[in-house]
Sequence to fold (329 residues):
Amino acid sequence: MVFILVKIENICLGKCPLILAPMEDITDSSFRLICKDMGVDLLFTEFISSEGLIRDAVKSKRKLDFSEKERPIGIQIFGHDIDSMKLAAITATQSKPDLIDINWGCPVRKVASKGAGAGMLKDINKMVKITSEVVQSIDLPVTVKTRLGWDENNKNIVEIAERLQDVGIKAISIHGRTKSQMYRGEADWTLIGKVKNNQRMKIPVFGNGDITEPQHAFEMKNKYNVDGIMIGRGSIGNPWIFKEIKHYFETGRFLAKPELLEKVKVCRNHLENSIEIKGERTAIFEIRKHYSSYFRAIPNFKQFRIKLMTLTDLEEIENLLTEIGNSCR
Fold:
């Protein structure tokens, strides 16, 4: 397998970079820092509504925050109005990210039904127009995350990628499903491969979808020659996947899966990161959505999970995490 140095303009990402996909209510700064420690080469914020950003919505503005440790990092925006997307991109640059990413791939109804996210796959001309306007309005590199197309009869990603490149994007990430599929069925990487191996394409092409084990990443890289691998749901509760993939790429061998003590340690670090960023009360409530993922498949964990989901005192949570770690000895 050939590995070449991948760059987005002057941003060097290394050879076959691993990228954390932006996920709403998951990839906040506290989780991004955990993944960065595990070897992620490029991070993105949670996606941010262009309308919320230009109207100074608190939730949207808060998503602009990141630490220097997270670089290189992109701020991802979504929307359907040209002027709002331009202004949101300009506003986002004030946080000094390394790049701006446009989400043309989110399939959820509340986003796509308004013509934003993957909803724009029904109007490619408008997608290209908005992308062009955003590229021209800022000095930072602009990248795009999208899908194969609207549905099974409209998988036009090869054309889409060419047109987006032509208006100035510097990289594209492609999820191997259509909007209509949502997250059902298996991701189809064949069209991602066609985009990458299209002689007209000169920008990095990153593949996304169903990467849950190191050999999956190896197979997709080897078969389709993508420039990098983007991982989303496969990292939830399993940030070790990035370290495991890099080890497999370098040695051809599997890295040992984390033991329970290691899972407790990382979960604790995640909580501590969140407390430092958001404060104790908010962190305690928000970390709850991660407990089941961190400790999935742990025998007899139900009794611990119920307690973790109800405790509000930090010391009691810390003591319980210690008890969970000790239970494997």
